[in-house]
Amino acid sequence: METKIFSKDEIDDAVNLLAKGELVAFPTETVYGLGAIATKEKSVKAVYAAKGRPSDNPLIVTVSDINMVKKYAKEIPERAKKLVKHFWPGPLTILLFVKPGALPDAVTGGLDTVAFRCPDDQLTHDLIAKLGYPIVGPSANTSTKPSPTTAQHVYHDLKGKIAGIIDGGATRVGLESTIIDLSVKTPIVLRPGEITPEELSDVLGEKVLINTGKVSDKEVPKAPGMKYRHYAPSAPVVVVDDKNDFSRIKFSNDVGVMATKEILAKIPLPDENKFNLGENLIEADHNLFGGLRYFDDKKDIKQIFVEGFDEGEASLAYMNRLNKAAGGHHFNK
């Protein structure tokens, strides 16, 4: 299969492919998503096959507005309306009860809930509006690998497996959306993202919990990113929580380092063994997946040391993705 890359002026071509049941990757402000019409079970199953994704890992339904949610959600509670008004379009995914039979089990994992997201990206809004249907939108990468933040990342992983990619340039946020579960009595963040639990709590006027539990092998996770290994390059990743510990690491030419500019300046390695995460946490959020992909393409790198951050709720999303990439492996722990 030839994988075509579309410019923003070629949206109609991408719409036509999706309408025929084909898969097309699309940009969002967080990461690139892999699109298929959410109501077409055959197309949705093809998404799992293209990614090599476990079949019990539910998919997020990407919509153009709240009116599209009304067609598939059993109800839209007042809490959801508050969050939609404040954060949509944006990097927030909302889990609600689904209308029975409204969406294939391949989307919901057979659960009675489904996650909805309205991205802050005009290309994707135009795509869905012209299509007239919501699309599933898991990250457009090979399962377990770092999520794609450019069209080139998608092409690297899925060339020949999908029909097209809409090139919207580099993503702004760089980490996937926050997922909040509103199907429970007390709202709970199932996956941290740019929007923090504190911000959600302020808008809702009630406490918002953070999921810390693990999903067992026999359970179907309520949302993506809760059960399986994610974001991992080929080489093992080690989290360095204390930046002073970088001076204690014995570096060799088969080691890679991802850290802020200040730390990298002190690392005795050639430039090709270093990846600059930026000046601060916000820049590190944006660059994390790019760094993991950078080293994934370097077959001579046998271990990757990555700077950790401890900045409260602001660093939850970064550390969630980094810990998954590292399999919980921390330096000196």
From TrEMBL:
InterPro entries: DHBP_synth_RibB-like_a/b_dom, Sua5-like_dom, Sua5/YwlC_C, Sua5_C, T(6)A37_SUA5, TC-AMP_synthase_SUA5
Family statement drawn from the similarity comment of this UniProt entry: Belongs to the SUA5 family.
Protein name, UniProt field: Threonylcarbamoyl-AMP synthase
Cellular component terms (Gene Ontology): cytoplasm
E.C. number: 2.7.7.87
Location of the YrdC-like domain: 8-195
GO molecular function, one term: tRNA binding
Binding site for L-threonine: 30, 117, 177
GO biological process: regulation of translational fidelity; tRNA processing
Residues reported in the UniProt entry to bind ATP: 53, 57, 113, 139, 147, 191, 231
Locations listed in the record: Cytoplasm
Protein keywords: ATP-binding, Cytoplasm, Nucleotide-binding, Nucleotidyltransferase, Transferase, tRNA processing
Catalytic reaction equation(s): L-threonine + hydrogencarbonate + ATP = L-threonylcarbamoyladenylate + diphosphate + H2O
Pfam families: Sua5_C (PF03481), Sua5_yciO_yrdC (PF01300)
Function description: Required for the formation of a threonylcarbamoyl group on adenosine at position 37 (t(6)A37) in tRNAs that read codons beginning with adenine.
